[in-house]
Amino acid sequence: MIWLTWRQFRAQAIVVAGALAVIAVALAVTGAHLAHLYDSSGVAACQARGDCGTVASTFMNEVKANLTDKSLYQASAVLLSVVPVLIGVFWGAPLITREIEAGTFRLAWNQSVTRTRWLAVKLGLIGLAAMATAGLLSLMIGWWASPVDHALALPQGRNGLGDINRFTPLLFGARGITPIGYAAFAFALGVTLGVFIRRTVPAMAATLAVFTAALVTMAFWVRPHLITPLRAVSPFSAAGLNQMTTGSAPGSPMTVTDSVHVPAGAWVLANQTITPAGHVFSGPAPQVCFTGTTQACTAYVGRLHLRQLVTYQPASRYWAFQGYETAIFLALALALAGACFWWVRRRRLA
Questions:
Q1: What is the distance between the alpha carbons of residues 149 and 218, in angstroms, rounded to a whole number?
Q2: What predicted TM-score, i.e. pTM, was given to this entire model?
Q3: Does residue 164 contact residue 267 with C-beta atoms inside 8 Å?
Q4: What's 160's DSSP letter?
Q5: Do 190 and 248 share a domain, yes or no?
Q6: How far apart, in whole angstroms, are the C-alpha atoms of residue 300 and residue 175?
Q7: Which residues share a beta bridge with 312?
Q8: Quick one: CA torsion of 143, 144, 148, 151, rounded to 10 degrees?
């Protein structure tokens, strides 16, 4: 049964192995330049000197100016985000469905191969290949991008590539061990939907839709609450005011936002301005902000004794989030695999 499964899967395995080899060569060639740029910029030793803000910003600007490095960094994140869903759509969804549509599952079962063994070999062999593919790709890209990722965690480092850090949804899912969990879940999801739908093309479309919905749900609604966030309260600085919004007339609602002051690399979930009583500040907007100067309006805000409340996840929790999220998707993959076994053993496929 293992030999038969390998024969059916070897074409995909060869294509993936070749693609990984090409990617490895490309990353090895370009990674040497990126590593040299990182070493020569002084980012590695800046923490001892205490000037990481300037050094990291300079390094990131140099990366941004180099079209090859910038393009590869952005493309690698997209690639690792796409690979798991491709595994689910093209490896998972057709795995059992094509056997059902062609009727070839009867041949295996007539050779004294039980349904459980038949499914276990397919899920085990190809599922491990899916996880290995995502893991190797993450390892290679993580090595190549490590200079940039390290700089992003330093003060001002993210300025070179825009307002991003390691917790950004696209980047978080393209680093560490989460691609392994995503690949396992996508593969199991594709197989399960294929077993239930029993048509290859609809199962592939459903896999794409459900997997995308699962990632969006995790990134925007579940992940921020996996660990209780920290809260930092500090005096509101009128000098640091970076945004003010008012209605069209005096007395209308008014919001002000101060610059964020949290540890470098932190994931900011909310930045609110609160009153001395602890309520979110909402105005009203005074007359001076409409008829006076900007300085007069800013001075008015400074006399309100406002405070800044920032809710955030510190950078030190990055690997904890990676571990929790990977565990969740692996657990979901196991649950889906269990559903497949139950369905295949108890339902008639003929």
A1: 22
A2: 0.88
A3: no
A4: B
A5: no
A6: 46
A7: 230, 268
A8: 30
The angle formed by the CA atoms of residues 265, 172 and 89, to the nearest 5 degrees, is: 170
DSSP string spanning 95-114?
HHHHHHHHTTHHHHHTTT--
Say if residue 112 is in the same domain as residue 204.
Answer: yes
**C-alpha 204: how far from its chain's center?**
22
Amino acid at 100: I
More confident residue, 57 or 161: 57
Same domain, 295 and 310: yes
Whether residue 104 is predicted with pLDDT greater than 80 in this model: the reply is no
* pLDDT tens-digit readout, 204-255: 999 999 999 999 999 999 999 999 999 999 998 877 788 888 888 899 999 9
Note whether 247 and 118 are same-domain residues: no
Angstrom distance (rounded) from CA 179 to CA 123: 18
Looking at the fold, whether 303 and 323 belong to one and the same domain comes out as no
Q: Do 302 and 338 belong together in one domain?
A: no
Distance from C-alpha of 47 to C-alpha of 182, rounded to nearest angstrom:
34
Question: Average of pLDDT values for 255-274?
Answer: 86
What is the number of structural domains in the chain?
2
Pairing of strands 267-274, 254-258: unpaired
Mean pLDDT along residues 308-327: 94
Handedness of CA 183, 187, 190, 192 (dihedral sign): negative
Cis previous bond, 284, omega within 30: yes
Highest-confidence segment of 83-92, 169-178, 297-306: 83-92
Are the C-beta atoms of 4 and 16 separated by less than 8 Å? no
